[in-house]
Structures are given as structure tokens and as C-alpha cells.
């Protein structure tokens, strides 16, 4: 049973209920919510969810790192310690990321990279479609 108060919601045991009963009831409620999703996705889908969670974690860490490096470089450039040719850097990075070979980095390149990554992650799994579905759900939910 939950009691709401000025300090937030707190759970207390129902009269005559043991801690094990409360845990079992909570697990049952969680399974009622998650069970249908787990059954639909299966093994490959659950791996997709987990992989998406890891991708998001690594992506955030990478974005923070690159952002801090950019701030540092811009500060050094602002105070005259270094000169950065951002146009040249953009051209080199764009050339490396242009996987379609059309001389520009666009949405088609992003789709090709995503397809390549998902194919590599789903290779050998019993249900590649389940993995991809779990991955996309994980990106949205987790």
C-alpha cells in the first residue's frame, strides 16, 4: 500500500502482509506491465533493448567528451593560442563519413551507417527483426 505525504510517496506493508508478499505483489505488477513486451520481443528483442541502452550510454559519453574538447579548442582559439581551420576539418570528416560515395554527408549516409551497425549487431541471432525492433524501442524508451 502506498501513502502520499508532504515528503512524497512511501510504501508501507498492508496489515498481516509479509515483506515477501509485498515483493511478490510488486514483481507481479511489473510482469503484468513488461510481460507482454518481453514475450513479443523474445531473446533477440531483449538483446536489442540492452544494446540500445549501451549505445545511448556510450553516445552520451562520447558527446560530452567531444563537446568538452570543442569548448577547449574554441577557448584556445579565442585567446590566440591556436588557429583552427573548421572548414578543412569539416571537409575531412565529411569525406570519411560519406559512405555512399556521393561527395556529401547526408541522411542517406546516416541510414547506411545505421543499417551497417544493426546488421553487424544482429548477425547470427535467431531473429534479426526482433533485435532491430528491440533496439529501436530501446532507443526510444530507455
TrEMBL record:
Q: Which InterPro entries match?
A: FUN14 (IPR007014)
Q: Which family does it belong to?
A: Belongs to the FUN14 family.
Q: What is this protein called?
A: FUN14 family protein
Subcellular location, principal: membrane
Please state where this protein is localized. Membrane
- Provide an example Pfam family for this protein: FUN14
| Domain of life where this protein originates | Eukaryota
Source species: Ostreobium quekettii
UniProt keyword annotations, A-Z: Membrane, Transmembrane, Transmembrane helix
Gene Ontology CC, one term: membrane
